[in-house]
Design a protein that fits this description.
6 strands; alpha+beta; 155 residues
Amino acid sequence: MSAASYRDSHRAPLTHPSAGVVDLFFAVFGHHPAWMKAAIRARNRVVRALGLQVPAESNQFDGPRRAAYRVGDTIGRWPIFLLNEQELIAGRDSSHLDFRVSVLRQVQDGQAWVTISTVCKVHNRFGKAYLRCVLPFHRPGLKFIIRRAMRAGRL
């Protein structure tokens, strides 16, 4: 994805240094609180009414976890674009914007870390408007679910 319209990155120490990137993905994105699920469902109703594709409700939250994943599979609500020992990249390409989320596992000076990054590339005015509406919720929401995963001992 070239020339990002938006990007962010959040790093957290791992207390489970042997956790794989799929485990880390589910540690963060597999445990949304009820209020966040309700907000995402409301967002989906709005964007569906505007003609955008949204994933099935069964793929949104707490869906079944596969024993193994590979590029092209869907994890959570997003198709996987890259998957190796260090990084999982998933996301979606749409007419209004392309979105990616990266779960990167690194070891630096003997400490294991996970870095969750998001990148968006806007394609048109609708994408700009959509991003402007979503970002006030995305930024604190992502930080919240990462902190929540840390407090729960999932990272």
